């Protein structure tokens, strides 16, 4: 990936990707360059862990993760499955997010920190994509 191969800064850096441009190999390359990379990823991408593709049905707020070579892939259940990969965030650290249940009432559910931070920094980009 051109962005990461040209990255030769001495300061701590972090890149957040949306699923359209994100592959697990990007995270491995970023890890080698000491650049933090986090992004949503589709389960049909090459090298995606098969253990997270198939398996148990999760309840809303539940998540599972696998970690290898400094890269974690997290599967979190919101209304649908959400997959995110990161070489920066500890997959065991969680936060709470507010969601509406079927009756329209607000409910706090657990959410991995990687997803909370992804939503914090990518939310505006995703909103602008909706307008195109």
Automatic annotation (TrEMBL):
Keywords: Signal
Keyword Glycoprotein tagged: no
Extent of the signal sequence: 1-30
Superkingdom, natural source: Eukaryota
Keyword Transmembrane helix recorded: no
Name of the protein in its database record: PiggyBac transposable element-derived protein domain-containing protein
Coiled-coil residue spans: none
Pfam assignment, any one: DDE_Tnp_1_7
Domain PiggyBac transposable element-derived protein: 15-131
